[in-house]
Amino acid sequence: MIKKVDHIGIAVKNLDAAKEFYEKILGLKVVEEEVVEDQKVKVAFIPTGDSEVELLESTTPDGPIARYIEKNGEGIQHIAFRVDNLEEKLAQLKAAGVRLIDEKPRRGAGGAQIAFLHPKATCGTLVELCERE
Ligand SMILES: C[C@@H](C(=O)O)C(=O)SCCNC(=O)CCNC(=O)[C@H](O)C(C)(C)COP(=O)(O)OP(=O)(O)OC[C@H]1O[C@@H](n2cnc3c(N)ncnc32)[C@H](O)[C@@H]1OP(=O)(O)O
Ligand SMILES: [Co+2]
């Protein structure tokens, strides 16, 4: 079952510059920063009520965030929905013929289990599903 929007992923060129805007100008607060090697990103999480903003800077010129920015510039790269059972949700989507990027959960930020659905199967938005304690 999908519980809520967990976070909105925003691709940025420079995490420090983005933090400057979100913290100093908007008045929000980064609570956690982490490198997720598996996704070739450095992330900063900013709580906004019941959901968070995830700022993403690429750690390599060939990662998904670098490729996204090269093609589209900075901006919203994905939306993440919290699920209570990721394996079960992936099996259900696979049975429904949905194109999955990840058939098995991978490790995400903050110890979450994550998996992506292909934007061509979701009416144009890259969707992440995540399960966390
Ligand atoms: C840390 C973690 C966490 O929260 O815990 C994260 O979020 S990590 C967040 C970063 N990690 C990821 O994004 C991992 C999953 N992403 C991927 O595997 C990749 O980025 C893909 C989504 C498959 C795109 O791959 P690639 O750039 O090689 O393909 P491509 O440029 O040929 O794109 C194929 C088609 O999908 C579209 N497309 C590509 N990226 C898109 C996006 N973010 N949103 C909407 N559409 C997108 C392209 O425009 C293109 O459409 P046309 O054919 O019409 O031109
Ligand atoms: Co994410």
Automatic annotation (TrEMBL):
Native source species: Desulfoscipio gibsoniae DSM 7213
CDD domains given in the database record: MMCE
GO biological process: L-methylmalonyl-CoA metabolic process
Name of this chain's protein: Methylmalonyl-CoA epimerase
Keyword Glycosyltransferase: no
TM region(s), chain numbering: none
InterPro entries in UniProt: Glyas_Bleomycin-R_OHBP_Dase, Glyoxalase_1_CS, MeMalonyl-CoA_epimerase, MMCE/EMCE_epimerase, VOC_core
This protein's UniProt keywords: Coiled coil, Metal-binding
